[in-house]
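Section 5: illustrative case.
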């Protein structure tokens, strides 16, 4: 862990394989339309989805 940072502040890395090419292409287009990167678009989508699950009570709320 980096000195002086909490664990959740230290970025991690994922490698995801076997993503359908059409989905990859559509995500690149969506990111370009929104003026962001695919990485940021995926982060935003994941956070939004998790917030929805928290609202529905399907997941504990983030601290």
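Designed sequence:
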């Amino acid at each position: 862990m980096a000195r002086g940072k909490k664990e959740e502040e230290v970025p991690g890395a994922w490698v995801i394989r076997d993503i359908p090419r059409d989905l990859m292409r559509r995500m690149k287009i969506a990111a370009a339309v929104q003026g962001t990167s695919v990485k940021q678009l995926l982060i935003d989508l994941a956070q939004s989805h998790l917030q929805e699950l928290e609202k529905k009570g399907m997941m504990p709320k983030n601290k």
